[in-house]
Every structure is written in structure tokens, then in C-alpha cells.
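User: New here, any thoughts?
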Amino acid sequence: MAETTHTEASFSRDSVSNTLLVAIAVSLVCSILVASTSVLLKPRQEHNRNIYRQKIVLEVAGLYEPGKDILEAFETGIETRMVDLESGNYVGSPDPLSFDPLAASRDPELGVAVPADLDIAGVQRRALFSPVYVIRDGDRIEQVILPVRGSGLWSTMHGYLALAGDGETVRGLQFYEHAETPGLGDQVDRDEWKDQWPGKLLFDASGDIRLEVVRGKVQPGPNAIHQVDGLSGATLTGRGVSDLLRYWTGPHGFGPYLEKLRSEARSDD
């Protein structure tokens, strides 16, 4: 009788229902551990992302020094301001250091839909405000760095455009996030392509935006000052770069802010 009871108990422990209960319990514990780890690591991950973006800002501005503390270099060399994109004026709030333009763009109170006829970059919505990064030489603005984003072939490309204090001479363009085709669209990360941007002009003599990535090689002539070589085998990525620059430096992007910079630079002359 005792043997029969032992056999029945063993059978009960090995039953399908008990196996499922154990599996569910293990899955639940693992889920809790993963979720807890994610919550605990989130502040560190966000800190690392901020440091990385600050590094890209320093690089595109020509201020990055390997081995030097990034946070210290950013805080001592760069002034972070908030701009009202409609007026082009600096504003005191929101806080530019904690502001997330992408998240704000989705907020009905902090974002606005981009009209279809203006949305050449495929951003759909933008925030009402944006941080800008200012480098000064005394009281004079020596350089500004603008956050830009737009659709490439496979992804949204996020980067920074650096302009001289005149609001039109390019100092650099660099992307910090994208998922373009390896070996093709990711040519935007190569030094030989990034090195073409400094010295290019955003506007022509009439004030129209002319900066673009061309197909093939830039040809000698009056338009060359506004052009950068195309990306071999990645025409759509190059077109995406041109479109996002045209949008963000245009009237629905940083255009009003850049016009103020250009006006101030002309008055200083």
C-alpha cells in the first residue's frame, strides 16, 4: 500500500499541470529579474546616450580631444540654449538640458504636425522648441550646432549640423544614429565624406537654400560651394541627407533662427 502511494505521489509531481506551473513560475521570476534590471540600468543607459551625443557635438564642432573628459569639455566649451522655432528667439524654458525634442514632438501641447507640402524630410511632427549648442568667442557667436533628423532609405537619421556664426557657412555634419545599409548608406559615417562638408555654403546669393548631396562627384563651377559628393550605391540615403538639411534649415525648421544669426553677422560687419 505504501509503495502504491509513493508511486502515485511521484506521478502527481511529474504531471503536466505541475510541469506547467513550474514553467510559469520560472518565467515569471525571470521576467521580474529582467524588468528590474532594465529599470535599474535605464538611468545609466540614458547617461551613456547623453555622453555619446555630447561627444558627437564636440566632434562636429571640432572641439573633441581624445582622452579629455567629455562632460567637462562640453560644459566648459558649449552653451546650450533653447530656441522657439517659430520666432527664432531664445527662450528660458523648457530646460534645454533635459528636453527631448522627439518625445515633445508627439505631445499635442509641445509639438506640431509638419504640413505635408513642407515635410520633405519625412519627420511628420516636430517640437515647438529645440535645443541649440552655441560656441562663443567672447560675446561673438563663433559657431552653432543644430540637431537634425530625417528619413534615409531604411531609417531615421539623427545628427548635428555645425554652422559658423554667420548662420550659413558649414563647419561639419555628423550623424550619431541611423540604420542605413552597411557598406552603402553608412558611408555617411566615413571621414572622407564628412571631411567634404566644412566650408560649404548653405545659401546662395539670393538667400535660397542650396546645400545638397549630388549624384556622383561634385563638378567644378559656381555651384560646387553648395555641393557634396554623392554616396556610391546609396542615392536615396544621399537624397535623405539633402532633404533633412533643407527642412531643418528652412522656414519650418531653424530658418527664423538662422536669419537672426545672419542679420546679426551682417550688422557686425
